[in-house]
Amino acid sequence: MKYFNKTLLAAAVAFASTQTLAAGFQLNSQSATGVGRAFAGDAVIADNASVLSRNPAAMALFDSKALSVGLTYADIDVTVKDVCKAGTPVCFGSEDAAADAKVIPNFYYISPINDKWAYGVAVFSNFGTGTDVGALANNAKTIPGLGTVPAPVDLLGNTEVVTMNFNGSLSYRVNDQLSLGAGIDVIYGQGKLTREGQLPVLPNGGLANVELVNVDADGWALGGIVGGVYEFNANHRLGVSYRFSPEFKASGDINQFVPQARAQASFDEIVIPLPDIFQVAGFHQLTEKFALHYTAQHTSWGDFKEITLEDGTLGSTTIPEAQLKHYAWDDSWLFSVGGTYQLTDAWAVRAGYMHDKGVVGEISSISIPDSDRNWYTVGASYALTPKSTLDFGVAFVRGEDVEVVEQSALIGDVVAHTRSNATYYSMQYSYKF
């Protein structure tokens, strides 16, 4: 009982919001061609309709209708090792498989209206994650003479978050060099989260199962994107885009256990600010067979100031709004460079490298393993016919070993070591009408 703090003070839901922030982890999986070149130049290359996910202005580069559909299989490898109470030998174990693989679909269609205007529609995902370290939540430790030290249940559990972006865009060719574009994003998000485990809440200090957090919520939000393309000539061009992300509201069942009241507090909505995304990309056809391309992208993770809950009740008490937690995340840059080589009339090959900066600053999380990441990618395209192409891409994403120190409302500071790697396998079919 010495280590068990019964005054949680709504911390359980605060940690739920930490996991909801996992939806903020940006996905780079929008196309097989992008995966194969580490998304270098993806906002301006326009070799298929998937460019719509990065820059609506690039639709002006198409002189006929184009369709792309694809799937990316993300094999995620997240390890959480040596979860211990800081400054003590009390440890609760490790989880070597803390994330499940995901299948991420995409769809793009672009249609020129005339020699000036084009429109497009797309379905893809920009944010999503999933981790499960709930197996450690029941590993309470009994210390002779000190009593039972519960596992940090408020930090350990299952998290599943997915978003889908439904986009409609227009582009306008101003002149032979400059094209502009804009689009509307309708974003659907869904998340499930549990924090449950054995805690010494019985009168004699005995262990009992406590459901601290149980969340099942979804919602819709509106965002937008604007972009531009400048063509120096047929072989050299630059693209730029800015995606405005919304303040996202997820509604549903959001329940928190409050020990003082021995009851569940319920909220109807979690309010989550999503980051904006700015990128600059270049494409240069250096020879008849070889092209060089690159991207610099900034994501405003520093916009995460707080997560709030709205429309809550605890018994007969109404809770209009509650600030859950302050965050000290950093804005993040990624940089990528790639090349494409036309091997034969039917085959093109590509490769790329990306350095993706981590976003976690002063406040880290056991269940959100984050670090700088390096991407090593290869891909190929095979022309089935003059109008149809199969694209393939593989990306090896490697993170870093990170020591995490996170405060548990139950037992104080907790130390763990985390690492997050992934391998992306992507396939795509493209057709130009």
Automatic annotation (TrEMBL):
Domain of life: Bacteria
Pfam families: Toluene_X
Chief localization: membrane
SUPFAM superfamilies tied to this protein: Porins (SSF56935)
Signal peptide location: 1-22
Topology within the bilayer: Multi-pass membrane protein
rRNA-binding is among the record's keywords: no
Subcellular location: Cell outer membrane
Family matches, as InterPro entries: OMPP1/FadL/TodX
Keywords assigned by UniProt, alphabetized: Cell outer membrane, Membrane, Signal, Transmembrane, Transmembrane beta strand
Family: Belongs to the OmpP1/FadL family.
Identification of the protein by name: OmpP1/FadL family transporter
Species of origin: Shewanella jiangmenensis
Source species taxonomy: Bacteria, Pseudomonadati, Pseudomonadota, Gammaproteobacteria, Alteromonadales
